[in-house]
Specification:
Layout: H1 2-17, H2 22-31, H3 36-63, H4 68-74, E1 90-92, E2 102-106, E3 112-114, H5 123-130, H6 133-147, E4 157-161, E5 166-169, H7 188-195, E6 199-205, H8 208-212, H9 216-229, E7 236-242, E8 246-252, E9 257-261, E10 268-269, H10 272-283, H11 294-311, E11 320-327, H12 337-351, E12 354-362, H13 369-377, E13 382-385, H14 392-397, H15 400-406, E14 415-416, E15 420-421, E16 428-438, E17 445-455, H16 456-463, H17 470-481, H18 491-498, E18 545-547, H19 569-596, E19 620-626, E20 633-635, E21 642-647, E22 662-666, E23 669-670, H20 676-685, E24 692-698, E25 733-735, E26 738-741, E27 747-748
Parallel strand pairs: 6-7, 6-11, 11-12, 12-13
Antiparallel strand pairs: 1-2, 2-18, 3-5, 4-5, 4-17, 7-8, 7-10, 8-9, 14-16, 15-16, 16-17, 19-24, 20-21, 20-27, 21-22, 22-23, 22-24, 25-26
Length: about 750
């Protein structure tokens, strides 16, 4: 009897500790309706739980990918999202915004498959993911019951494979067949789940060598922008630029701008808005003439990480930190290599979070020994990129693969993303996703990402609050950083990622992270699809809207404009043409105005000893392109423009400008209110540019008013405008009528 009582108590304890079933959790969420915060938490937990169950199903299916039964079942059983007609299409309302009493053609009994390219073999992936279709169908049916309580449609469920194949349920036709512009691997939900929360600091060399090699600086900025765009709200980011010294990006509070500063800086949350501001700041980066100081770059990077942690601990993920360090040269000023390594090691210990450094050596002259040593000292990865044949953008953006590999040891990890626009519905929403691995091998092999969508309008209904509010954004940020995955890889596993020429020599062999291929029937690739009855839509737009009760596309229903696309395409074209026409009309009116309202030169001073010409309207604007370097002409005192005082015979501008022209703009920057010295300084600052656009006002040909009088220090005649006196050096003119000119300075530019 005692034994029976003990067993009953143990069973009760197990039941209490066991996670709730779907039905139990649904009841818990319903019971929490009076507690809004509790209900929100319950619903989001339910979504996370369902995501992990779907992940387990895909992983189970992958283990059966080579079975004969799997391959036999796959034959003629898949539905292409472009070529195939789905067997049980029905017109479902409130899925897409098709307007009026219209709905969208979906098939909730089957899944559709998107192939990312006409090239390549996706047979194996299509076959093993087909095994999960039954689970996806059952899940959708159960979700219908739950979400019907809130009068919203259940989430769509889908899987994005590492090779780009995309399977989803309900099935829906692609809106434009023949296009391959969708790639699940760059979508926010995929990136978030494949790397986890992290703090990323991008460090770019902007020393003189980056300027001396054409295209390097632009390539570095393109790579940095690509990295920024792979981040999500679970990440924090900063960009550092260095030569002899270093500057870092800083978000200006309340000014909607990111700037580079030498002051203390912090990482910023990678929201969509912040990423756009950061991208604009990166585009403004330029190289300088400085030397290369590795120490300065790393010191600024660790300052940013430390400042973020100290000033606002919630703004740092506290998980993993990655420093992406790019250089095209060698450190030739500042502390030596040992001091750089000491700085890195001491700073990492102070941070107390897992920090890895990824170094990238660009070009043949770039340091390869020190940068490799730095990466190896932090269990990071060093990569050498050739100038002509290398892929810097791809190399820097692939740093996340190390984190994806490590996530295989974290079985409870899921990710949430900031609200974004869904590809199919064009509506806003969020996604919960989880990475999928083959966990039968060590290290686990990354296979792809599973995910479920929730529309914004559904969130508003369920939560009873605006899902775009800062409160909801903070909720998703907290959810996305709540789990800190452990990244613990052996040296052999790291060397497998590093590649043959970049290993750190700490292991005797590199673990091969390669999936074993299945032996597939030779004709299976050509017999994947259940039907190809929709091939006549190749290259055409497909209308997924329908009339309720119908199972075919409607001629009267079509996708209505959404907040991000307020007008149909034809309306946008009309508006664009109208705007262009208005601009053209305005330009024509401006030119007519300019023809009859040319700017007049300044009036001559009253001078009784000289004759004066009447001002004329026939002044012209002249636009010339100046080469780099010295221009070989002298500019005089500024007066609503800087006059050209003398043009040397050796000047590269001798055939483009003439004495008497007035310089009024440099590269479209107005200089009419600048002093002579300010104009000269501006031209000097731009002297290394490949070109400089000069805008000048040109008066009529110079007219002799009187010959030089005895005692004048003027070398040539006084002309129509006394500013246009062609003389060398300081001068003064005195005659019976008084002083015509006083001390004036001319600068050789």
């Amino acid at each position: 009897m005692i034994l029976i009582l003990i067993l009953i108590q143990l069973a009760a304890a197990v039941l209490l500790l066991a996670p709730p079933t779907n039905a139990q959790q649904d009841l818990q969420c319903s019971a929490a309706q009076d507690d809004k915060e509790g209900q929100v938490k319950c619903i989001l937990q339910r979504v996370e739980k369902e995501t992990l169950k779907f992940r387990d199903e895909i992983e189970r299916a992958y283990g059966l990918r080579c079975n004969e039964e799997t391959l036999a079942r796959c034959r003629s059983s898949n539905f292409n999202d472009c070529k195939s007609i789905f067997p049980n299409r029905q017109c479902m309302k409130d899925v897409l915004d098709c307007g009026g009493d219209c709905g969208a053609l979906l098939d909730k009994t089957t899944s559709s498959v998107y192939i990312p390219s006409a090239e390549g073999d996706y047979t194996e992936t299509a076959c093993y993911t087909l095994l999960a279709e039954e689970y996806m169908r059952t899940k959708y049916e159960e979700d219908e019951d739950f979400w019907d309580t809130y009068e919203v449609k259940p989430p769509w469920t889908y899987f994005g494979a590492r090779n780009g194949l995309f399977r989803r349920l309900p099935a829906i036709a692609r809106d434009k067949c023949g296009s391959y512009d969708f790639d699940p691997r760059v979508r926010p939900w995929f990136v978030a789940a494949s790397s986890g929360p992290k703090d990323v600091v991008i460090v770019l060399d902007v020393s003189g060598s980056m300027m001396n090699s054409p295209g390097r600086m632009d390539l570095a900025k393109e790579a940095a922008i690509k990295v920024v765009n792979t981040l999500t709200i679970s990440d924090r980011v900063a960009v550092i630029v260095f030569s002899e010294t270093a500057n870092a990006t800083q978000l200006l509070a309340g000014e909607d701008a990111v700037v580079l500063t030498d002051k203390d800086t912090t990482l910023i949350i990678a929201t969509d808005e912040n990423k756009k501001l950061l991208e604009e700041a990166i585009k403004q980066i330029s190289s300088d003439k400085g030397e290369t100081n590795f120490y300065a770059g790393f010191q600024k990077a660790f300052e940013a990480l430390n400042n973020t942690d100290e000033e606002d601990p919630e703004r740092i993920s506290g998980c993993n930190a990655a420093i992406l360090f790019l250089t095209d040269g060698k450190s030739n000023v500042g502390p030596d290599t040992d001091e750089v390594l000491d700085l890195i090691n001491d700073s990492i210990q102070q941070l107390a979070i897992d920090t890895k450094i990824f170094t990238f050596s660009l070009g043949i002259d770039a340091d390869q020994n020190v940068t490799k040593k730095i990466a190896c000292s932090t269990n990071g990865i060093w990569t050498h990129i050739e100038d002509l044949n290398g892929d810097l953008v791809g190399a820097m953006a692939s740093y996340y693969k190390l984190y994806a590999l490590g996530l295989g040891y974290n079985e409870e990890f899921t990710a949430w993303v900031e609200l974004y626009e869904f590809v199919s519905s064009k509506k806003m929403g969020t996604t919960n996703s989880a990475p999928v691995f083959d966990r039968s091998v060590d290290p686990p092999l990354f296979l792809g990402v599973v995910a479920s969508d929730i529309h914004l309008e559904d969130l508003n209904k369920v939560f009873g609050q605006n899902a775009t509010s800062s409160e909801m954004l903070n909720r998703f940020i907290q959810l996305s950083t709540a789990q800190c995955p452990r990244i613990d890889l052996s040296e052999s596993q790291l060397d497998a990622l590093r590649g043959e020429n970049a290993t750190c020599g700490k292991s005797n062999s590199a673990t091969q992270i390669i999936a074993a291929e299945c032996l597939l029937p030779g004709d299976l690739k050509d017999n994947l699809w259940n039907n190809t009855n929709n091939t006549d839509m190749e290259g055409k737009e497909y209308n997924v809207c329908c009339e309720i009760g119908s199972n075919s596309p409607s001629e009267t229903c079509s996708l209505s404009p959404d907040p991000l696309h307020p007008f149909p395409v034809w309306a946008i074209i009309v508006i664009v043409l109208a705007v262009l026409g208005s601009l053209l009309l305005m330009i024509c009116l401006f030119l007519v105005y300019r023809k009859f309202h040319r700017p007049k030169p300044p009036a001559l001073p009253n001078d009784s000893s000289s004759c004066s010409l009447e001002p004329t309207d026939h002044y012209d604007y002249v636009y010339v392109v100046a080469p780099p370097g010295k221009l070989g002409f002298l500019i005089g005192d500024a007066n609503h423009g800087t006059p050209i005082h003398m043009v040397k015979d050796s000047s590269p501008m001798a055939d483009k400008i003439r004495v008497g022209d007035k310089l009024v703009a440099v590269d479209d920057q107005d200089v009419r209110n600048m002093t002579t010295f300010e104009v000269a300084e501006l031209l000097t600052d731009k002297s290394e540019n490949l070109s400089r656009k000069l805008t000048l006002i040109r008066p009529p040909p110079l007219t002799l008013i009187r010959p030089p009088a005895p005692g004048d220090s003027i070398s040539e005649a006084v002309t129509e405008d006394y500013d246009y006196v062609k003389a060398i050096g300081d001068f003064s003119v005195s005659d019976a009528g008084g002083t015509m000119g006083s001390q004036r300075i001319y600068i050789d530019v």
